[in-house]
Specification:
The chain is of the alpha/beta class. The protein is built from 15 helices and 21 strands. The protein has three domains: 47 residues, no CATH class; 332 residues, Spore Coat Polysaccharide Biosynthesis Protein SpsA, Chain A, CATH 3.90.550; 74 residues, no CATH class. Helices cover 32% and strands 18% of the residues. The structure holds uridine 5'-triphosphate.
C-alpha cells in the first residue's frame, strides 16, 4: 500500500536508524512512513527520534492482547476482603493512633519523608487548557491546585522544622508548562532546589487493527504510560538516588486533583513504619454497592485493587454480618511508597500489568487531514500504581473520613467537578469554624451556604485552627477567607 520499502528509505540514515526502519517494517507498522516523501530533513529526523523511543516488543504484546491471542490478567480467581486499620472508634483505637502519630512525626522531623505528586495525566475529562494543577479551585481565593498543594508542604515544613522535598512527575504533554508555572509563581515560597520535576514515559496507542496512529505527518500519537509509570520514572530520572542521598525513605504519593489531600500525614506514616510496609494506601468506605471505585481485596493471596468492572455483582452487593459491604474499601489513590521498594521494583524489571481503555484519539487520514473523532476509535495502554501493592510485604490499608481527605476534580461538571470540590472545601473548613464556635450558614442539604476557605499557611489542621481562632473575632460575611 505504501510506496516505501525498506531499501528506498534507508539511504542516508545512520546504522541505528536503518535497524529501526527495518523493525518498523518487521512489525507491520510501515504506514508510519506514508508521508515520508513529503517530509523535510528535520521532520524525518523528528519522526525517527520518536520511533526510537518505542518499545516494539511491548507494542507486539499489546497487539496480541487486542487480538485475543493473549489474555489480559484481570480475571479474578480467589478474592477475600482486605484487612484495614479502621477510623478509631474507641479509646484503644485512639491510643494506637496517637502512637502512630508520634512515630510519623519523628520520621518527618528527621527528614525521612518527601512529598510525591503525579501530575503527568492529560486531564481530558476536565477539558482545561493547560496542566490540571493550574486549574483555579479555591472557593474564595481562586487558588490553583498546585498552590494549594505547595502551601500544605510549606506549612508542614514549618511545623516540623525541616525542608520537605517535593517530587513532581509530569509528562511530555505538560512538563514545560508545569515548570514555567512554578517559576512564574516563585515556587509558591518553597525552596526551588527542593522541588524536583521529572517526566514519565510515553506509550503509543493502537487503532482497531493494532496499528500505531499518526496524528501528524511526522508524529505518532502517544499518551503518558499511566500513574504506574511513576515508579519507573522515579528510578530512571535519578530522583530515587537523589532522595536516598538526602536520607529520604518514604514518599507521600498523591494525585493532582484531590483538593482535600493530607500530604505527609504523620498518622499514616507511623502505621506504615510500624508495619514495615513497602507501600501502603488509604481507603474510604464505598458509599453504595454500585459506586464506580476500585476496591482493595486479596486476590489470589495478594493485596490488589479490583476495578469496579471486574467485581461480580454478587461480590459488589455482598455484606458482612455487621451490615457493611464485604468489598467496601474504596481505593482513593493516596499511598506511601518506600524509596527502597521503588529500587526493588526497578531491580525486578517493573512488571506492572497494562490496562487497556478504548478512547478518542486524533488521527491523520491518508490524505493528511487531521480528524478529531466524536467516538472512541483507539486503544490506550496504562499501568496503575496500585498494582505494585501485590509486590509489597505487610502493606497497611488505613481507613479515612472521605469528607476530610478526598474530593477529586475529574469532570468539568456534575460529580467530582470543580463545583463539588469547592463545596467540599467550604464544608470542610465550615466544620473547623463550627468547632471553634463560629456559626456557619447551611443550606437545606447541609452544605455550607457560603464559600469558606482557610489557607494551609494559616492552619494545617483543625487543632491548629482551633488554637489560632481562640480569642479572635471571626465572622462570616458572605464568605470567609483566612490567610497567613
Ligand atoms: P486520572 O486517571 O484521573 O487521569 O489521573 P487524568 O489524565 O488526570 O484525567 P483524564 O482521565 O484524562 O480525564 C489521576 C492522577 O494520575 C496522574 C494524573 O495527573 C492525576 O494526578 N497521571 C495519570 C499521571 O501522572 N500519569 C498518567 O499517565 C496518568
Amino acid at each position: 500500500m505504501y510506496r516505501h520499502g525498506v531499501d528506498s528509505m534507508i539511504h542516508g540514515r545512520t546504522p541505528d536508524e536503518k535497524r529501526l526502519i527495518q523493525t518498523v517494517h518487521d512489525h507491520g507498522q510501515e504506514h508510519l512512513f506514508r508521508f515520508w516523501d513529503s517530509l523535510s530533513g528535520k521532520e524525518k529526523d523528528a519522526l525517527m527520534r520518536q520511533i526510537g523511543t518505542i518499545d516494539f516488543e511491548l507494542v507486539a504484546a499489546h497487539r496480541r492482547l487486542l487480538s485475543g491471542a493473549e489474555e489480559a490478567d484481570t480475571a479474578v480467581h480467589t478474592l477475600d476482603p482486605a484487612p484495614c486499620i479502621p477510623i478509631p472508634r474507641d479509646e484503644a483505637g485512639r491510643k494506637r493512633e496517637r502512637r502512630a502519630r508520634e512515630i510519623g512525626e519523628e520520621a518527618i522531623r528527621a527528614g525521612k519523608v518527601a512529598a510525591f505528586l503525579v501530575a503527568g495525566g492529560q486531564g481530558t475529562r476536565l477539558g482545561f487548557d493547560g496542566p490540571k494543577g493550574c486549574f483555579p479551585v479555591g472557593p474564595v481565593s481562586g487558588k490553583t491546585l498546585f498552590q494549594m498543594h505547595a502551601e500544605k508542604i510549606l506549612a508542614a515544613s514549618r511545623r516540623y522544622g525541616v525542608t520537605i522535598p517535593w517530587a513532581i512527575m509530569t509528562s511530555e504533554t505538560n512538563d514545560a508548562a508545569t515548570r514555567e508555572f512554578f517559576q512564574e509563581h516563585g515556587w509558591f515560597g518553597l525552596d526551588p532546589g527542593s522541588v524536583i520535576f521529572f517526566s514519565q514515559r510515553m506509550i503509543p496507542a493502537l487503532d482497531g487493527e493494532g496499528r500505531l496512529i499518526l496524528d501528524g505527518r511526522d508524529h505518532i500519537f502517544m499518551n503518558p504510560n499511566g500513574h504506574g509509570g511513576s515508579l519507573l520514572a522515579l528510578y530512571e530520572s535519578g530522583t530515587i538516588g537523589r532522595f536516598e542521598a538526602r536520607g529520604v525513605e518514604i514518599l507521600s504519593y498523591f494525585q493532582v486533583d484531590n483538593v482535600l489531600i493530607r500530604i505527609v500525614d504523620p498518622v499514616f506514616i507511623g502505621y506504615h513504619i510500624q508495619a514495615g510496609a513497602g507501600m501502603s494506601s488509604k481507603m474510604v468506605q464505598k458509599s453504595h454497592p454500585g459506586e464506580k471505585v476500585g476496591v482493595f481485596g486479596i486476590r489470589d493471596g495478594k493485596l490488589n485493587v479490583i476495578e469496579y468492572s471486574d467485581l461480580s455483582p454478587e461480590d459488589a452487593e455482598a455484606r458482612l454480618p455487621d451490615g457493611s459491604l464485604k468489598y467496601g474499601s474504596g481505593s482513593i489513590a493516596i499511598h506511601l511508597i518506600d524509596t527502597k521498594f521503588v529500587r526493588a521494583e526497578a531491580e525486578d524489571g517493573f512488571r506492572l500489568p497494562y490496562h487497556t481503555a478504548f478512547k478518542k484519539v486524533p488521527y491523520l487520514t491518508d490524505s493528511g487531514d487531521l480528524v478529531d473523532p466524536d467516538t472512541p476509535n483507539a486503544f490506550k495502554f496504562e499501568t496503575f500504581v496500585f498494582d505494585a501493592l501485590a509486590d509489597t510485604s505487610s502493606p497497611v490499608i488505613m481507613e479515612i473520613v472521605r469528607e476530610h481527605e478526598f474530593s477529586p476534580v475529574k469532570n468539568a461538571a456534575g460529580e467530582d467537578s470543580p463545583a463539588t470540590a469547592r463545596r467540599d472545601l467550604s464544608n470542610y473548613y465550615g466544620g473547623w469554624l463550627e468547632a471553634a464556635g463560629v456559626p456557619v450558614p447551611r443550606d437545606a442539604a447541609g452544605n455550607a451556604a457560603v464559600p469558606l476557605e482557610i489557607s494551609p499557611l494559616f492552619a494545617l489542621d483543625r487543632e491548629e485552627f482551633t488554637a489560632k481562632a481562640a480569642g479572635r473575632e471571626l465572622t462570616i460575611n458572605g464568605s470567609l477567607y483566612l490567610e497567613e
